Amino acid sequence: MKAFVTGGAGFIGSSLVDRLLADGHDVVAYDNFSTGRREFVNAALAHPRFTLVEGDTLNLPALTAAMAGCDVVFHLAANADVRFGTEHPKKDLEQNTIATFHVLEAMRANGIKRIAFASTGSVYGEAYVFPTPEDAPFPLQTSLYGASKLAGEGLITAYGSGFGFEGCIFRFVSILGERYTHGHVLDFYRNLRQDSTRLTVLGNGKQRKSYLYIGDCLDAMVLAMEKTRRTIEIYNLGTSEYVEVNDSIGWICEQLGVTPAIAYTGGDRGWVGDNPFIFLDNAKIRALGWTPKLTIRDGVLRTLEYLQRNPALLEARA
Amino acid sequence: MKAFVTGGAGFIGSSLVDRLLADGHDVVAYDNFSTGRREFVNAALAHPRFTLVEGDTLNLPALTAAMAGCDVVFHLAANADVRFGTEHPKKDLEQNTIATFHVLEAMRANGIKRIAFASTGSVYGEAYVFPTPEDAPFPLQTSLYGASKLAGEGLITAYGSGFGFEGCIFRFVSILGERYTHGHVLDFYRNLRQDSTRLTVLGNGKQRKSYLYIGDCLDAMVLAMEKTRRTIEIYNLGTSEYVEVNDSIGWICEQLGVTPAIAYTGGDRGWVGDNPFIFLDNAKIRALGWTPKLTIRDGVLRTLEYLQRNPALLEARA
Questions:
Q1: Which CATH superfamily is domain B2-175+212-237 in?
Q2: What are the residue numbers of the active site of A?
Q3: Using CA atoms, how far apart are residues B166 and B144, in angstroms rounded to an integer?
Q4: pLDDT in tens, B42-79
Q5: What's the pTM value of the predicted model, to 2 decimals?
Q6: B177-209+241-278+294-315: which CATH architecture?
Q7: ipTM of this predicted complex?
Q8: Which of B141, B158, B159 has the CB atom closest to A157's CB atom?
């Protein structure tokens, strides 16, 4: 199999590249390095079955040319920033919705019909069924990020119906682990390195969230794609548990040996569009035989240890 | 109130313009005349409170300028062609998704927060709950048209959450009545005028569909917008009944006094992505006090009579 991975130098993308190479596949990674990092593909670049193409998903001719000869596309390139969507609404539209349209059109031009898409649990908006199943009630979007990913899902399922595309849409919770470059573990660690005596937490700290370790995420993606033929399947990807933000802060502080005074900005959410409770029903992916190996606590601690070994990531843009 | 109506020279848009003028409002219609028709706004043009701006929703600066001073936007401009989406996938993306983004950005630039949006029952894909409520299970899209409207809905609800936008999203069934310019009544009438002895019907004729008369549609839109403040509400707009395509053919043939031999192309649907059963739950809009005045049969016959009086529409592009 020859796989095309958009966002192949990013956190999840580069991890998937390594996994696919290890599984014996040929891999083409496509990345514009806006948030992807060269050190994440250094190991892959030494591999004879790996090709790196520097390019943007908004450049349809370049994307189409780079995809030639591939059998399956893992579309992971995205603006993954949920929080600041209202500061630049066009970014989610372009980098998520229009980019996904380009990926689909490049596939069509190349006669490729198999796709895996990194969507998000944010498409459920503020869900009111927990754990939230894939066929939850039709949601209202609460973030431009979620709206742009929902649009991508709609395009992919319409291409399934109209052009016979097949594959999987994965609705991720937040993913943790090695090569993690943005999110609460990085934010808290960065702040505590600067001042270990105090920590400001957005909201009241009681937001309940679910997280998944990157290794478990990749296991699920590879398994689901193997099992899916002739349909577009949607899978929630998350652990069977959730934690409070305060739980995660406790683990991080314990690991760092610090006891900061914690100041809460207040309210039941961190920012406009933040979701105070995220907990996805993972019964569908578990029914394929998958089960997560790491708890959320393990995932948080592995992420923290990784950041401690790679402090340069604390200065990263994303 | 000063209302801005995109697609204001189209079937539903021009009918809404006339209604809003009659209700005492100022109205700006914005239309690129790709499918809109000048004769539909001739009466409005004689009105002192009406302004017509010829422009494209893809031209954001022009759209923004035209919208200045308005209080509410009725966004009806769209590529409304469901059936041929796979022949030009970019059309739905541009004219529906990106155009809706432009409308929202133009509103934001002008400080306008009230919006009414013409969405579609097609966003339910192939529903499996009937009648289909607004909070039906999370659907898979089966047409590029539905996908593009779903993307528009997602953007609008995200602007509600992120920027305090308010208003209504209307999920229409097919609308019938005066100024109707495309759909099955026109197709069947055009074909029977050419040859009244035979009629070809896509599918098996047993597709069950719901329709709504334009006057009832406008009543519902105006009422729902009056009642909606500080939230984005989604309303299905359809009658409380559905009919078979064969029923509609029977009424049309009876009215025309013809008895064609009917040839079915076969299968349970008219084309790839056609939906063999559309029947929306209208309890939410009825709870506001609305009730449709015309049956589907009445709507079909009024449409046919209108087309008989206006045969030039049979030659129209759309």
A1: NAD(P)-binding Rossmann-like Domain (3.40.50.720)
A2: 145
A3: 26
A4: 999 999 999 999 999 999 999 999 999 999 999 999 99
A5: 0.95
A6: Alpha-Beta Complex (3.90)
A7: 0.94
A8: B141
